């Protein structure tokens, strides 16, 4: 199975990367903004990115590379497999000293993830998944919550989406914001949430690891039409997404399909 032999080495790399970020956060580290949306970045993002590029390149030398903190090169990731990396997902939380930031890594083969790791260093949560082998949290198998009902189900996501969902299905239980999008989606995989929503504009590096973790935990993560995501394509930005256990996911898709304008 592709990725199986890399699971343990990847976990070691993730712990090294998380510790580098955690140590950096204890000092007076540099931070600045980038891009048209003035998104934050810190010296920890860059240091972790450089570490992961070196370590992951050694684990799979033939794999391409796509990272939030590396200038994208289609030629540099036009391979059968590619690493998709967010060195620190939830940089705002990292800078603010909050615990809900993560290191997110996935190995993608033929546009779908086959190996995933998500590490939350502050809370010491290590999520790992290999396609066809299930998902784990700190070594224990995890499973998305069963059931199709939306009443009393715990959801996290942008407030405007939760408000609209509550209008369609009263009695859902909105949960506090999780600043790392990858962690928000992965909370579905271990049953911390019954469902999670992402607004349009997320990138491959925000999603690929969480995608495999959710699916390997018996859940589903798709766009609002129920279509699975494809990764390492020329266009790496995605629309609005829903993650939930398979039965509840089907209920949600039936509810929101054709209502995208209401959720815009």
Q: What report would you give on this structure?
A:
The chain has 264 residues and is of the alpha+beta class. The protein folds into 2 domains: 4-141, Fructose-1,6-Bisphosphatase, subunit A, domain 1 (Fructose-1,6-Bisphosphatase, Chain A, domain 1, 2-Layer Sandwich), CATH 3.30.540; 154-263, D-Maltodextrin-Binding Protein, domain 2 (3-Layer(aba) Sandwich), CATH 3.40.190.80. The protein contains 7 helices and 14 strands. It has helices at residues 7-25, 43-59, 91-96, 159-168, 181-189, 204-216, 246-256, and strands spanning 31-34, 39-42, 64-67, 81-89, 102-109, 112-120, 125-130, 135-137, 140-141, 154-156, 173-174, 195-198, 219-223, 241-245. The strands form 3 sheets. The protein has a 7-stranded mixed beta sheet with strand order 3-4-5-6-7-8-9, with helices on both faces. The protein has a 5-stranded mixed beta sheet with strand order 11-10-12-14-13, sandwiched between helices. β5 and β6 (112-120) form a beta hairpin. α5 (181-189) packs parallel to α6 (204-216). The radius of gyration is 17 Å and the shape is globular. The chain starts with 6 loop residues before the first helix and ends in an 8-residue tail after the last helix.
């Amino acid at each position: 199975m592709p990725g199986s032999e890399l699971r343990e080495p990847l976990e070691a790399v993730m712990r090294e990367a998380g510790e580098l970020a955690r140590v950096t956060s204890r000092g007076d580290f540099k931070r600045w903004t980038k891009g048209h949306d003035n998104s934050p970045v810190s010296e920890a993002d860059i240091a972790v990115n450089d570490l992961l590029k070196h370590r992951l390149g050694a684990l799979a030398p033939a794999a391409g590379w796509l990272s939030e903190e590396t200038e994208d090169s289609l030629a540099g990731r036009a391979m059968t497999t590619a690493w998709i990396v967010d060195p620190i997902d939830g940089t705002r939380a990292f800078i603010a000293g909050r615990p809900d930031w993560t290191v997110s890594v996935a190995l993608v083969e033929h546009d779908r993830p086959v190996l995933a790791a998500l590490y939350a260093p502050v809370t010491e949560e290590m999520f790992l998944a290999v396609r066809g082998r299930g998902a784990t949290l700190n070594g224990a198998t995890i499973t998305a919550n069963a059931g199709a009902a939306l009443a009393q189900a715990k959801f996290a996501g942008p407030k405007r989406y939760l408000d609209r969902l509550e209008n369609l299905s009263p009695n859902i239980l909105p949960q506090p914001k999780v600043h790392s999008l990858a962690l928000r989606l992965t909370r579905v995989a271990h049953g911390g949430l019954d469902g999670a929503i992402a607004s349009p504009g997320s990138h491959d590096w925000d999603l690929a690891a969480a995608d495999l973790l959710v699916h390997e935990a018996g859940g589903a993560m798709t766009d609002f039409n129920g279509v699975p995501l494809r990764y390492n394509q020329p266009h790496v930005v995605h629309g609005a997404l829903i993650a939930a256990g398979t039965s509840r996911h089907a209920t949600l898709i039936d509810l929101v399909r054709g209502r995208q304008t209401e959720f815009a």
